[in-house]
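dumping this here before i forget
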Amino acid sequence: MRRTLIVTGGGAGIGAAVSLLAGSRGYRVCVNYLSDSVRAARVVAEIAAQGGEAVAVQADVSTSAGVLRLFAESDDRLGPLSALVNNAATLETQMRLDEMDEARLTRVFTTNIIGPFLCAREAVRRMSSRYGGAGGAIVNVSSGAARVGSPGEYIDYAASKGAVDTLTVGLAKEVAEEGIRVNGVRPGHIYTELHAKGGEAGRVDRVKDQVPMKRGGQPEEVAAAILWLLSDDASYVTGATLDVTGGR
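structure:
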């Protein structure tokens, strides 16, 4: 039986790489996006061209209404949920804490913390044996920033990813007896467009010499780790967060 996967922020960067790899491995993929319908449609079309099944669903996963609509559409169009990748996230222009205002903090924390909590809640309600579900897996996309703090750049983003790490540990223990595994990945310096949102599109090239492997990573390398954590090959792994950071 084919499994159904929701990927938040699935139209670009790491999310797109996860969606494409999952589609090639037989998942029915719900590609969530916030605003770029063209890129999401392109991911769906590529999955279909490989013989897979996917749909694109616009939803703001920082809101309860958006999350509820996303999961309802996935249910209706792809069938019972098997897995969730909490990937959608945002960051803002690099600055110190003493320059940040409340509005920025609210935007970052709402998307990066409340969003994953709401999505995980809906996934548990569908997959948990407590609710008659058949079990499943959740992977939360954190960041190496959670361990180093990103001083002088975006400690708010780093702090939000630290909260994601705690969500992974706590939820994994909460639902371990209900057939759901919950794990995370911490990507390091990965070539994605997220850095442009921070005001430095070429950031990976600037900092790559800090990485023991002396290079930035590719979204596909993170996607491979995520798909392993979703797979039955990781059947005895829960509450773990895997660093995909080139050794940093």
